[in-house]
Design goal:
The longest helix is centred in the last third of the chain and has 14 residues. Helix 3 packs across helix 4. The protein has 4 helices and no strands. The protein is an all-alpha fold and 82 residues long. 43% of the residues lie in helices and 0% in strands.
Length: 82
């Protein structure tokens, strides 16, 4: 009897670790404390974006980043993202 040759297909998982180096913080991280201060004054995202000359999405990203860090006080230094 002749048997048909079929290739064996296997999969493997190779763990890879690497570091991502960011030389400077993102823009939304730089302006996050200013955004928080203006938000405390009762300004909405559109007003803040006009006041700071930034895009609306950048302001929203700064707010979300602050909420994820639970930054409460304006005197606190913004933590390094890495």
């Amino acid at each position: 009897w002749w048997t048909r040759l079929t290739p064996i297909r296997t999969t493997s998982e190779v763990p890879i670790e690497f570091s991502v180096f960011v030389s400077e913080p993102f823009r939304y991280q730089e302006i996050s404390i200013k955004v928080q201060d203006l938000q405390k004054l009762g300004m909405n995202c559109h007003q803040i974006s006009e006041a700071l000359g930034e895009e609306y999405k950048t302001i929203k990203r700064a707010i979300r980043w602050l909420e994820s860090l639970n930054v409460q006080c304006k005197s606190d230094k913004v933590p390094d993202p890495l």
